[in-house]
Specification:
Elements: H1 22-31, H2 40-47, H3 52-57, H4 67-77, H5 81-85, H6 104-109, E1 125-126, E2 131-132
Antiparallel strand pairs: 1-2
Bound molecules: zinc ion (ZN) (2 copies).
One zinc ion binds at residues 103, 105-106, 126, 128-129, 131.
Length: 176
């Protein structure tokens, strides 16, 4: 804390998880103790890009985030722009922001929401585990919160742990 630059507010660095979606990452970045930014808007102010971050946290990417916008946040954190770009959905695949989906087996390997779960498919299946993706809490049936708000590895409504949900993910038979 010996050098504080008034013009460029520096945020604490948060290492992205493997396959982490930008919504999940932004929530963690804001809540990180050294940052403690109460809202997407406050992060947008720090980065000088206004209210657009709240839309990304909700998985709304129309208009698609520009390198300039991403770069203005990345430079606050000291994160490589390419790592931010990796958190965005592929533009070749139809993306659907709702319902928020979850593969608990993936989550056990890397505790975050993945963008690929939101790709529009006939049947929503995790390609890594061949399991059907959850689209709501199997216990209370409430939709999952937006990933930016995932704080406790649990359903925000009934507190069921994500790790307890894996038995509700039906295994998909491979056609061979
Ligand atoms: Zn999976
Ligand atoms: Zn629940």
């Amino acid at each position: 804390m010996s050098q504080i630059d008034d013009r460029v507010p520096q945020l604490g660095y948060v290492e992205p998880f493997e396959h982490e979606s930008i919504s999940h990452y932004l929530g963690r970045l804001r809540r990180f103790k050294a940052n403690s930014l109460p809202s997407a808007y406050s992060l947008g102010q720090a980065a000088g890009i206004g209210g657009i971050i709240a839309r990304w946290e909700k998985l709304y990417f129309n208009p698609f985030p520009t390198d300039e916008e991403l770069g203005s946040i990345a430079s606050l954190i000291g994160l490589d722009l390419s790592r931010f770009q990796d958190m965005l959905p592929s533009r070749e695949i139809t993306f659907q922001p709702r319902p928020i989906r979850l593969c608990v087996a993936c989550y056990g390997e890397s505790p975050c929401h993945r963008m690929e779960w939101q790709y529009k498919d006939v049947v929503a299946v995790c390609q890594h585990h061949n399991l059907r993706l959850l689209e709501r809490c199997p216990q209370c049936k409430k939709p999952f919160e937006i990933p930016a708000l995932w704080t406790a590895d649990r359903c925000h409504h009934c507190q069921m742990r994500f790790t307890s949900m894996v038995k509700y993910q039906a295994r998909i038979k491979k056609a061979r």
